[in-house]
Design a protein that fits this description.
Layout (H helix, E strand, L loop, with lengths): L8 E6 L7 H12 L4 E4 L11 H11 L4 E4 L2 E2 L5 H15 L5 E4 L4 H6 L7 H19 L7 E4 L4 E5 L11 E3 L4 H10 L2 E2 L10 H15 L8 E6 L2 E2 L8 E2 L1 H15 L3 E5 L3 H26 L9 H4 L16 E3 L6 H4 L11 E4 L3 H12 L5 E4 L15 E4 L6 E5 L4 E5 L4 H8 L4 E2 L10 H4 L9 H4 L6 E7 L5 E5 L4 H10 L5 E8 L1 E2 L3 E9 L3 H14 L4 E8 L8 E8 L4 H8 L8 E9 L20 E6 L4 H12 L3 E8 L21 E7 L5 H11 L17 H6 L2 H14 L16
Parallel strand pairs: 1-2, 1-13, 2-3, 4-5, 5-8, 8-9, 9-10, 10-13, 11-12, 15-17, 16-17
Antiparallel strand pairs: 6-7, 14-15, 18-19, 19-23, 20-24, 21-22, 21-23, 25-27, 25-28, 26-27, 26-30, 29-31, 30-31
Length: about 750
């Protein structure tokens, strides 16, 4: 007797008949509506009476929402594996993680040859299938940067670019019967998918034994391999053999197959809607209940199984088995890990990424993370240049699923924003109302990071920093308490969250008062930056003298082989008066020789629009940052020398004055209310010594203060640049109240002990 403890799933095996092309789609929808888990279709590309199975799968995916979909099984000789890999990954991404992959070595060789396929011997067919799996898995490994070279005589790729990765761990299930195919299942596949019609008595027992032995020899736990079975039978009033009889007889037979032969997925071959409903509504629930009871009585181990190779990637000091039940946790080796490990610029190697969906799950995640070894990083969008929202060997608490954008009060334009939302999504949601919130210059930035640090945006001189309009927040503090803070409830904590939130808890949402913003004029200008000091002085003085409706960001790139230094200005005139915008922008054309210019009238959402969030930071970023009170001739000249030194590949300046300086320095934990520009330099060489030396000598003497998100210098004196003494004293008092154990110690850590 063999029970692998797999969660039971049930599905249908449908005919892709073309005579009534909507009929198989309707059966797929019925399968979902009836409560089944899986829909599969035959794949016979040479059969003119059938629809193309891949096309049918995509159509069925669009008509369903929950069921997983697969071919049963794909005819590999007519489905090139490299193309199939990308097709399956694409369907998985488009369907929300619902694609699976059934594969067969091939049959009906005369028909395959007639379609242009190559006839293979049985041994060649196994070799070809093995090569195909290597190609498919290699292309799905988008986290590996090297081009893929895989396969052999029958299927191979030579330097193919990898990706896209599927959204979930797509199962590769093999239709197999002979010993060599069964050993291939054990070595490389995720599931064994035979059909009852091809099995003789005892074949399930013998097949399981062959797979289990080969899996053990290959270093795998046999429980990693799901056992599926295509069922053939009839519902009849009286019992007359295996799967022939009333639903009660079917229940008895399937319970026995689950407990004695290890079958975890039952797939009914039928095109009869009545049989589908009977199977889903009367058989499947009873089988689940009886198997669960039998397992409980026997103490059978159940649940997902991790491969030996994945277990080997676990980090010492993290108790993976203690992760809270129901909390989505992604380990190294999981399919999704590559898309979650890194930030925009920093490539991380965390031991675990937690993805809570509610504030209660944030509480559970935080309590669990506190008990683990290693650093704790909190991430909203992962775009912060500092890279502190990932780590190596620790836990990342990623709040991307807390992404609501909802209007709380129309009259005051008060909007509640989930910390995991991106500012592009926020801008798009507010645009129909004619509202906007100044929020950086890129739509992929997360709400939580920006709204707890500062928020220097392209509307900043007109409307101030993002934090200036945060009026309430929900935060989970170190002890697991969920606190809702505003001007009346724990106002000192709200003060601290607006500028130093990374030290005080996990913010789950903020409430912000949006501004009424008409269409704006967005101008981009590209300049010859051969004289960067002159350009900087002219641009800076022009911006400082401009009306508040003008906010400008300037990016200067150092020269490279075949190209001199260039600069790009991104400028917003926060009004739809185009003539006034022209008058304000024209002086900027004189700061340096213009290589390109363009301007457009656009909603704010047209500048900071929604973007896909996928970060695979190439390396730990090296940057230095500071706040410049005003653009003097000396400051401009020295910043120009930083760019020309060869130590900086990029210099960025963001205007921060205007409305951002209207608040008193003690109004928020971000105390820098007199500076005109934020300045950031990025290293042009490996290591940080060169940039640190150049910045400290040329730029730092002109700076007064620091913006947290752009600084990567780990030296403790940077904390004193970020927070003036009076601010730091208040923050230490808050730490002693809300984080006395210094749990949040990764993002410019403020030690409560001083």
């Amino acid at each position: 007797m063999t029970d692998y403890g797999h969660e039971l799933t049930f599905g249908t095996f449908l005919t892709p008949q073309a005579a009534d092309p909507q009929a198989p789609v309707a059966l797929a929808v019925l399968s979902e509506d009836a409560g089944l888990d899986l829909v599969t279709f035959q794949d016979h590309p040479y059969q003119p009476a059938f629809l193309d199975t891949w096309t049918l799968l995509t159509w069925a995916a669009a008509r369903t929402e929950r069921v997983h979909l697969a071919a049963n099984v794909h005819n590999l000789p007519l489905r090139p594996p490299a193309v199939l890999a990308r097709s399956v990954a694409s369907l998985d991404l488009l369907s929300g993680g619902r694609a699976e992959l059934g594969l067969g070595a091939g049959a009906f060789w005369d028909a395959i040859e007639a379609m242009g396929g190559r006839r293979l011997t049985p041994g060649q067919g196994v070799d070809a299938l093995s090569e195909a799996i290597d190609v498919i898995r290699g292309l799905w490994d988008a986290d590996e940067r090297r081009p893929l070279r895989a396969g052999g005589e029958h299927h191979h790729v030579s330097g193919a670019k990898r990706g896209p990765a599927p959204l979930h761990d797509v199962g590769i299930w093999l239709g197999a019967y002979k010993p060599r195919m069964l050993r291939l299942v054990a070595e490389k596949a995720d599931g064994w998918l035979p059909s009852m019609g091809y099995l003789q008595p005892g074949d399930l027992v013998r097949g399981n034994a062959t797979i289990d032995e080969a899996a053990t020899a290959a270093g795998r736990d046999p429980r990693e391999i799901r056992r599926l079975l295509n069922l053939s039978g009839r519902f009849t009033p009286a019992s007359d053999g295996l799967l022939v009889g009333p639903p009660e007889r079917w229940v008895d037979d399937l319970v026995r197959l689950a407990l004695e032969d290890g079958i975890g997925t039952f797939v009914l071959g039928t095109d009869d809607p009545r049989d589908i409903r009977t199977f889903a509504e009367r058989v499947a629930p009873a089988v689940r209940d009886q198997v669960a009871a039998a397992r409980a009585a026997a103490g059978t181990r159940t649940g997902p199984v991790r491969s030996v190779s994945r277990l080997a990637k676990r980090v010492e000091g993290i108790d993976y088995d203690a992760a809270p039940a129901g909390l989505d946790a992604v380990e190294p080796g999981d399919r999704r890990y590559g898309a979650l490990r890194s930030t925009y610029m920093r490539r991380g190697e965390p031991g675990l990424v937690l993805l809570p969906r509610t504030h209660d799950e944030v509480v559970d995640a935080l309590a669990y993370a506190r008990a683990q070894r290693g650093p704790l990083a909190v991430r909203s969008g992962g775009h912060g240049i500092s890279g502190r929202s990932t780590n190596d060997g620790g836990v990342v608490l990623d709040v991307r699923r807390l992404d609501q954008v909802e209007v709380v009060d129309e009259a005051t334009r008060r909007v509640r924003l989930g910390a995991g939302a991106t500012w592009g999504a926020v801008a798009a949601a507010l645009a129909p109302r004619g509202w906007a919130i100044s929020s950086g210059d890129y739509g992929g930035v997360g709400v939580g990071g920006l709204a707890t640090t500062g928020g220097i945006g392209l509307l900043g001189r007109s409307y101030g920093l993002t934090i200036d309009h945060v009026v309430a927040a929900e935060v989970v503090t170190a002890d697991g308490t969920v606190r809702r803070v505003d001007a009346e409830h724990e106002p000192e904590l709200l003060w601290g969250l607006r500028g130093a939130g990374g030290n005080l808890g996990v913010v789950t949402w903020v409430e912000v008062e949006a501004a009424e913003v008409p269409d704006v004029v967005f101008a981009t200008m590209v300049f010859d930056a051969s004289e960067p000091g002159v350009l900087l002085e002219r641009w800076g003085r022009m911006v400082e003298a401009s009306p508040r409706r003008l906010t400008s960001f300037l990016h200067l790139q150092a020269s490279s082989p075949g190209r001199g230094p260039i600069a790009q200005a991104m400028t917003v005139w926060a009004d739809d008066d185009a003539q006034a915008a022209v008058e304000a922008l024209e002086p900027m054309l004189g700061v340096a020789p213009v290589l390109d210019q363009r301007a457009q009238l656009t909603p704010y959402a047209g500048i900071v629009g929604p973007v896909a969030r996928h970060h695979d930071g190439a390396a730990p970023p090296v940057s230095r940052s500071g706040l410049l009170p005003t653009m003097t001739a000396d400051a401009a000249a020295d910043l120009g020398r930083v760019l020309e030194s060869g130590e900086a590949m990029l210099l960025q300046l963001r205007a921060t004055g205007g409305a951002g300086n209207d608040l008193a320095p003690d109004a928020t934990a971000y105390a820098h209310r007199h500076q005109a520009f934020s300045v950031t330099a990025f290293a042009g060489r490996p290591g940080r010594a060169g940039l640190d030396g150049t910045w400290d000598r040329l730029a730092y003497p002109h700076m007064d203060g620091l913006y947290l998100s752009f600084e990567t210098d780990p030296r403790p004196e940077r904390l004193l640049d970020a927070f003036p003494p009076a601010t730091l004293d208040r923050l230490r008092a808050l730490k002693r109240t809300y984080d006395p154990d210094h749990v949040f110690d990764q993002n410019f850590p403020i030690d409560p002990r001083g």
